[in-house]
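ligand=FE2/S2 (inorganic) cluster
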Amino acid sequence: MDRKDFLSQVGISAAALLIPACVGGLSSCTKASNNTTAPTNVDFTLDISTGSLSANGGFLTHNGVLVARTNTSTFLAVSAACTHEGTNVNYVASANDFLCPNHGAMYDSNGTVTRGPATQNLSKYNTSLTGTSLRVYS
Ligand code: FES
């Protein structure tokens, strides 16, 4: 391999590393197969003593439902899939709202669209905390 071939191959490898995270399907921009259908008959329980929900501002996705702990220690649960094209939304604790990392749709804490391109609201679910056991249900 001469110098020109080496540099050519290194250049291709470096370019591959620069591909945006969304193309690789990494967690912050995970597509949900264009499935924008909100889960129904939701009823599950999470232990909030450890993990993402143990601290204010944390959130996780479970069975298609995003569960968030606000900065005031209350809990929110909405359908995780953005109603635009199904990318999982993220919880933004500082604004107490939900943001889609794909095209920037925003939803308030009730799941109501506040910025497009999404036009339909997220579904909101009930939460009930008993000790460290958080029930999320329709
Ligand atoms: S998939 Fe969420 S804004 Fe497009």
